[in-house]
Amino acid sequence: MLVLNLELQNCPGNGVICSNMGTEFRYASFFETKRLLWLVASVFVMVLIIQYFGFPNVALFSSSKGQVAFIGSFQSGESSGNSIMSGNLTFASVLNTTATNVVHEGTAKIELSKTSDGTVKDSNVTTSEDTEIEDKFLSQAVESNKLPVVESLGKTSSLSPLQVAHGSEFIIPTPNVTSENIFLLDKPDKYDIAHGVGKAIEKPGPVQIYPAPPTDHSCMKNIPVVIERSDRARKSVASITQMNYMLQQSRTSFCSMKPRWSSVVDQVLLRAKALIENAPLLQSEPGLSAPLFRNLSMFKRSYELMEKILKVYIYAEGERPILHSGPLGGIYASEGWFMKLLQENKRFVTKNPEKAHLFYLPISFRKLKVTLYVPDSHNRTNLIQFLHNYVDIIAQKYHFWNRTGGADHFIVASHDWAPAATNEIMSNCIRSLCNADLRGGFQFGKDVSLPQPNIRLETNPLAELGGKPASKRRTLAFFAGHMHGYLRPILLKYWENKDPDMRISGEITTASYLRYMKSSKYCICARGSQVNSPRVVESIYYGCIPVILSDNYVPPLFETLNWESFAVFVLEKDIPNLRNILLSIPDKKYKQMHRRVKQVQQRFLWHIKPSKYDVFHMILHSIWHNRVFGIRPS
């Protein structure tokens, strides 16, 4: 139009001709603009059609078909506005994820890892069928849109969402703790009837069943994220420093679902929380070594309040063997011993559910698998359906589940399948899990990492304890075990028969295994098909410093214990440098850690009759702790 106006100004007395020229130009410009708009609209519609039918590598808007959003990342140490991000995968766990979750660019390739194993040959060692059906099971979960979907918010990223989803190599750096480094989770605003979510109850009334609504964690900000995408995604790991940061943030930002109506027990817990946060400062305490704890003062006050206040109601519904009984030997013994000792306990258990602060679902996930899983079926639908039916019974008969959506209920599960089996129906519950994997749904502030010993004698869980003093341990590092998972073959490739100080091998006899555990300085706790391994607790039992070689594994009782004071953490990528890492630890530091391993051992022991601060009480305390710090005023 600018050219046309100039031409009219320069027309020497011929206004009619110039006017016609302007009109023709104006019409031509109009039609060209209209054609351009039609072209843009056509391209837009084509992209929408391609997106709808799920063609790969095309992402314009969010979809619920297994995509993952990555909008931000941890920053590196650079403060410049144009600083390069050295890593941009953030971990988070989401509860009760449905198709209402918002996701963005980048289709994620989902992959389940497999089941962990025992130390040596044992009747309770995980069978090969455990590892064979994981991929099938996860694919079913993906199809039903029940996998967690997460957003991480931050500044700019040097990698696009598509690069992240398709496996660019990156590692999360230690975060700068700033307001920009806060994780937020996208949550549905309403209950989704299409996905079986019912209407909320506002007050107690006639007994009805209302399936749990999507989790309303409106104050959840710094919870780690959780989807395993590909082999390369294994390089996106949270270091022990970053896990400490995530835990710290969860204490101030995580809240469980708001109760639908108020209860006296909520006020009791809120008062307990205030007392714990304002605990008097302790420099030392008989029987408790301060360096072993994150905060000895808060732990002591919290434990005392638990002993004084806590009441647990155990549901009587259901029949054995799946409910009310569990294994007392082998690598799944923790869930059985906890169940047995809690059922026998008179201090914490109440017969009146109205007085309960917590509700225990007495399920043995090991016996659930043994009883209901059809060998070689590659299908766990019937196991999950059993859990659905059990919760339905509880919700129909009692109003407690409906009041909190299950947030004041808890499970204790040793079997590796428990996280995946409970991600939907029990996602609001506090879950004490051996398979405490940041990529598998473990959530700081809610879930608890369950200690996993290998109990060799049911009648005496303290058998075989002990080992040589620090000065007489001649072997630098020891590992022996089955070749489950991707990591152990790598460990053997680098260190089997390579150095006399490094006793690294496959399976050996039980006697040899125990001998080396009791005479080595460091015991390598390498992950199997899952992140957890009974070697972590076994090392402590035998006075050997645990070397945790399992990325994204949350160590047991992590919210309470200071693991860096008595254990070594090595990233999987550093296996080639393992010997140098261990040799770099000064002898004085080694002896100090060995002394602390012996001190912390008491926190991991199962007693036929529970004693103060033993593993039964420590597990119960961690569950109590997460309930107290996760509760929201009604």
UniProtKB/TrEMBL annotation:
<keyword id="KW-0735">Signal-anchor</keyword>
<keyword id="KW-0472">Membrane</keyword>
<dbReference type="GO" id="GO:0000139">
    <property type="term" value="C:Golgi membrane"/>
</dbReference>
<protein>
    <recommendedName>
        <fullName>Exostosin GT47 domain-containing protein</fullName>
    </recommendedName>
</protein>
<keyword id="KW-1133">Transmembrane helix</keyword>
<keyword id="KW-0812">Transmembrane</keyword>
<feature type="domain" description="Exostosin GT47">
    <location>
        <begin position="307"/>
        <end position="583"/>
    </location>
</feature>
<dbReference type="Pfam" id="PF03016">
    <property type="entry name" value="Exostosin_GT47"/>
</dbReference>
<keyword id="KW-0808">Transferase</keyword>
<dbReference type="InterPro" id="IPR004263">
    <property type="entry name" value="Exostosin"/>
</dbReference>
<feature type="transmembrane region" description="Helical">
    <location>
        <begin position="36"/>
        <end position="55"/>
    </location>
</feature>
<dbReference type="GO" id="GO:0016757">
    <property type="term" value="F:glycosyltransferase activity"/>
</dbReference>
<keyword id="KW-0328">Glycosyltransferase</keyword>
<dbReference type="InterPro" id="IPR040911">
    <property type="entry name" value="Exostosin_GT47"/>
</dbReference>
<keyword id="KW-0333">Golgi apparatus</keyword>
<comment type="similarity">
    <text>Belongs to the glycosyltransferase 47 family.</text>
</comment>
